[in-house]
Amino acid sequence: MSNMRLVVMGAGGRMGRALVKAVSETPGASVCAALERAGSPALGKDAGELAGVGSLGVPVTDDALKAVIDADGVIDFTAPAATVEMSALAAQARIAHIIGTTGLQPADLESIAAAARHAVVVRSGNMSLGVNLLAVLVERAAAALGPDWDIEILEMHHRMKVDAPSGTALLLGEAAAKGRAIALADHSVRVRDGHTGARREGDIGFATLRGGTVVGDHAVIFAGAGERIELTHRAEDRTLFASGAVKAALWARGKKPGQYTMRDVLGI
Q1: Which of 43, 72, 127, 195 has the fewest CB atoms within 10 Å of its CB?
Q2: How wide is the angle at C-alpha 140 spanned by C-alphas 135 and 146, nearest 5°?
């Protein structure tokens, strides 16, 4: 089988460069196009040279329609508006859309779900094996411990991250809610300030820290009477997200249209 031809979105950014590098170093995959926003200083430059892997003969462009014409899939860790726009193009082209974008709102998710009727969509708040294994453990712990144990999710990222809580924190919150058979939206506490009153039983709390160059730290705390359990994951390099995304793309090739997660990709 020929290499899977992949479009990398946001190719001039830190995550985009990591994705270009991961694709170029993965057997069975190749970068066929690299996209950036209009006006980006990366436009016209070789995506491989930007990523530090040498020339790939793939200049960075802002022409998304041209990029998807000969592609088998697109990897997208950009912004909600760009992701929604690409979801429509991927559906029209019938190619796989691997989404690591966070900060998506309900309307964005509806658009992506509509696109998934015609394309394979793999979407996850985190593409790493470790975090997805952690989510499985959180779900099982939440189910076993019950509502008498309070759940708090603490996350920290670099100072440039623009959305909070992180997509990974929300993924872990959804896992905890699933373990308890409740809806996260009905039990999520995002902010505490002033005289908040006692903690409501069954709530799942989120706390957000930002600073420095932290790639991503997450801890799920189960606090019971006289004891505490903490499940933690620390990401030390963006390449683990990039490698997971490429793995998802290769897995998606030939699958039926629909929405999938990294649990599907990893078989966990």
Answers
A1: 195
A2: 120
